[in-house]
Queue: 2 jobs
Job 1
Amino acid sequence: MNAAKFALIAFFVGLLVLAFAHWLKIDYFFFAGYTILQFTVLATAWNILGGYCGYVNFGSAAFFALGAYSSVFMHKVYPLPVPALMLVGAVVSGIVGFGMGYLTLRLRGAFFAIATLALAVVLQTLVVNWDFVGGSRGAYIIRPETIDIGSLQVNYIEYLFVLMLVLAAIVLTTARTIERSQLGFGFATIRDDEMAAEASGVPTLRLKLIATTLSGAFMGMAGAPFPYYIGYLQPSSAFGLEYAVNSIAMPMIGGTTTWIGPLIGSLLLGTAQQYTTAYISLGTGVNVLIVGVILIVFVIIAPNGLVGLVQEWLRKRRKS
Amino acid sequence: MSALLHVDNISKRFGGFVALDGIELEVQAGERLGLIGPNGSGKSTLVNCICGTLQNETGNVTFDGHKLDGLAAHQRTHRGLARSFQLPRPFHSMSLADNLRIPLLYTVRAREGMLHAHSDLGARCHELLDMVGLAAKAQQMPRDLTQVEMRKLELARAMAAEPKLLIADEAMAGLSHSEIEDILALLVRLNERGITVILIEHIMSAVMSFSQRLAVLVSGRKVADGKPEDVVRDPEVVRAYLGQ
Amino acid sequence: MDISWDLLINAITAGLLLGGFYAAVTAGVSISFGMLDIVNIAHPAFIILGSYIAYFFNINFGIDPIIVSIVALPAFYALGALVYQVYYVSFEKRGQESLRGLAFFFGLLFVTEVGLILVFGVDYRYVEAAYIGPSIHLGLIELPLRMLVPCVVALAMFAALQLFVTRTFLGRAIMAVSQDQLALQLMAADPIRIKRIAFGLSIATASIAGALLIIIQPIEPSVGRDYIGRVFAICVLGGLGSMPGTLIAAFLLGVVESLTSTFYGPSWSPAVAFGFLLLTLAFRPAGLLGR
């Protein structure tokens, strides 16, 4: 199945989800769904660099927040419709991803990982000290109730939900296409043995830069609508720890070697977190603690995640 | 005739330890060079510096008339240098056939700028695996291989890059006598087709029968370089191997 | 003019005192990352854990925090040994330490931080001791005891570690295992056991570093994250595994941070360390005195 067909199927699934949501007529579904889909994008984007190439990015929050703050900046300078803001977020985060990659990707993976942590803190400090985008006091963006699309008047939150749905479909299609292409093949050699990859003629730095830029850009796109979604943006929420943890935990729990892993991980964990926040009122603290514990457990006993467990099970069945 | 490979005053240190000290070496096109030396003498470090895996501190490497300074390892491979690793480094998440596809896609195809059909690639992988006797295991994973088979895969992967100069770094360790004969025959066949070969080995019988010229590295310095029969009788070489 | 000089000298002094403390904080990572090649980004979490333990026993029983940390040393050592054992069995043995190992430590960092939030809340906590408050005055220079005492203890611990690593058999075995595991095996020492001891030692230093931290400043669970950057910046800048280098880098960072904080405001100081780290990684990854 080639990329175009897959994209079409993703589009249809998206339409089905949307129709279902519409039929439900529960606003909360759009709010929760938006957050879950946002994590799908973040997890899949993370996985392009982390799962496919083996380079861990601890600073997903940085790229996400860059997208969010680009929107805040544009809102004050020259308001644009949200889809355009997503492109702005993509460019900003993509450039930062490229720049950081260029500085650190020639070193070992561990140094890159530490540098991404560093990046998140540096950016957060810069934003906190930049009053134009609100600094530590935060920035308000008034979310309109509805938006006019052609002759339709659409609920604004539904509009944001659809945008995130489309973005998720794009990111998943991209990840899948990469995975099955020569590029993805090259990524896998970087993950398996970078030295041998270079010796075999794989231009590892170039490929890593592609992965970092793409990954960063998609994360920026996910962050761009966030100020409109949340209405009041503070550095502590944009740079929140739950973005870093979830972007790592969801792919690792779902399975890092395919595009399905982050999807499953984000749907499962995202839904679970939404459920526990809403109905069990555990609070985000315990919520996120549990995600951390599950991550540790999975990393130890199921290194290839849920997808890996299923593949293992299928292989054993085939042998017997 | 200018040499295919010219190693000019290469030095490499690791902290306080001098791994290579002013190495000078020339390899003519089509030659079969043997490189020997005790463990830790710097053979693999020299290979790493030539191929770009490590950066040499002084001197430079010229290949096929061009200086290789500043070129990344993959660029040197594109230009026709290929090497097998002393400790095998397979791509463990892929089958053997796919392991060979990588250099075919990223080196051969990149070099020629042509689009091979996928079936061409598959056939070529099979052909290469067959040359080293691994055709039956084409779809297996590296973790299912023995050490010896992994070395053969290493060699096949280097061959897949269609090099002008192939450096075989201890590809024969652990092989049986007949397997050594097979690999030697393979390397000679490659050489007859025009591929220059540097053979790094400890198995003296193989080195002697294969090499047209023999170079000896001891403690990071080249102590001998000439006809094999002469080199093995060189007192300094004898001293290095038998100790004092 | 007078006021500027006064401010400058005191900023530098405070920076040096801080640097001494930073050296103690980094000593543990110098061992785990510099010598064992284990990227334990959870180290600051262990430090904060040490801070809270010191806090708990200080507030409830009035025991001096440094004493608490020394008593807690064996527990921290055991914790470190346990963590290494899990790490080794799950990742190092299988050769998957890069991605999974990092995720593992990240999970630990995270779980520890959130766990502490749930138990102690996000309010700032501080300890009480006789030396928190008074300062020694030497002319223009003010030496707050709450910084001087930790600096002295830190340097003492650092010196003790340096002696251990260079003078004892175990210490030299740890240095050796970082350079040549095979040779160590040939000497009939079990490299895994050596590494486990080293890692346990590395976490034990966190106990003391934690007590020192809470003497210097009030803490809350997320303070640990500021230290990730500092610790790795110092480690890399100082050259991995070089103890003297670590010391110099620690002082350097302390002074630059202090100057930034004094003249540009404290909200910029987290960025200093990380900025250092990014610059070092980009331009001189071997560090100042690197191997």
Job 2
Amino acid sequence: MSTGVVEVTGVGIHPFGRFGEKSATEMGVEAVRAALAEAGHPPFQAAFCATAYGGVASGHKVLGALGLTGVPIVDVEAGCASGGAALMLAAGAIRAGMYDTVLVFGLEKMPKGIIRSSFFEPWREEAGLAATPSYFALRAQRLMRESGVTKHDLAQIVVKNRANGVHNPDAMFQKPTTVEEVLASRVVCEPLHLFMLCSPNEGAAAVVVQRGARPGGTVAAVRVAAAVLRSHLPGSVLGEATPMSGIDDRDIPPPTTLAAQAAYEEAGVAPRDLHVVECQDTDASREVLAYEELGLCARGDAAKLVADGSTTMTGRVPVNPSGGLLSKGEPLGASALGQVVELTRQLRGTAGARQVEGATVGLAHTVGRGANAAVVILTT
Amino acid sequence: MSTRRPVTEGLFATRDDGSIALLGGYSATSGKFHFPRLPACPYTGADDVEAVTLSTAATLWGWTAVTAAPPGYPGEVPYGFGIVELVREQLRVITRLTEADPAKLEFGQPMHLVADVLHTDDEGTEVVTYAFAPVGDTR
């Protein structure tokens, strides 16, 4: 199905955090300028802008500020996977022969506190059935029951990601933490403590994708080997679709697994071939569940992967070397492309103190409301 | 006695004694129940959805407590939140729980449906939703 080679020729990021009165548009402008400069300012034939809270014509506002309008500009909303969805559209259009160069960017300026989502009907908010962390908590509890994951394991994930985030100047939190500190933070929804949940925040990221080999580049070429988006199948009461009811879902693959299987097939790689992974750690248990859903381990074995350190920086497959969302925070529209920026640097060998040595195959995973799950595989 | 109204129409039926029953749907072609009731089966799209009243007996499948009021929620915190599995339909339902201390609950424990007053609105009307309580809870 994929006939053409799609390369990442430029990446840019505006740090993730809180930036006062600075607008999402301004952040987007910075990320886009950085990515276009790195790619050598190629003309592009289309732009996709990922955002969930940005509002009308978010992409036009950014490119309008840069005098780069005239091309089609399409805003893309797919919850936490918006950036992955935008990249899928861009890569697909290039492969289909529609464009040679596409600009993909994401931006967000999230409200503070528990995310309020227009997804929920007003009555569901009034009844107390729209508290996002409470759904994460139920999922964490079931994972603990079914895979033998402990609260200590969840704290260990936070410690791992925050340790990685120390070396990421674009992360919101750049200080390490300890298991004791995580477990001493207040309980938001049992079993999840405050430090086990990522912070919704602000930021932007941009990626330039182009057909074929880049002429005369000075850095290693990075290819988009797969960019896949999937939604949920009906049934799972705990899935990111957050329905009001569900059935026994043991035989219903979750959207992350659907996206991962399609991405592995498209890229011609297997989970064991991955050198580095950036995954959705909205809360600590979400990362652990992703180990199983992405096939990094067998179902029910996630606790082993945490215990043996396989996903630490020195382990078999480092997960979230950027510090993950637990360090960076989560600006919805920007987060998936932030992962692509990180993996591109990892595969180029320019990730500095958080470099995974010799990484040539990386996977980025986002999943959230919709449900939407995106899996992107990059290779050199 | 103060007047009462449901948090939204169509979720549950209220009897004269104030007790409630959840309103679900059943599709004979898919063989599956769902809640709340939809015009078509959410599993297959079949248009043979039959209106059913769901059973009130359940077992506890998952639970937590919400400790800070989420946006748009005017009630008290903490409150219990979880998933019960209806015994007859084998349907897992998202619900409030009357027990807000997670340490007092366990997997598989018998639960039953109750009416739960969320708050009193500006007109003095009690706003009611559904919840599940541990069997033996006298509330």
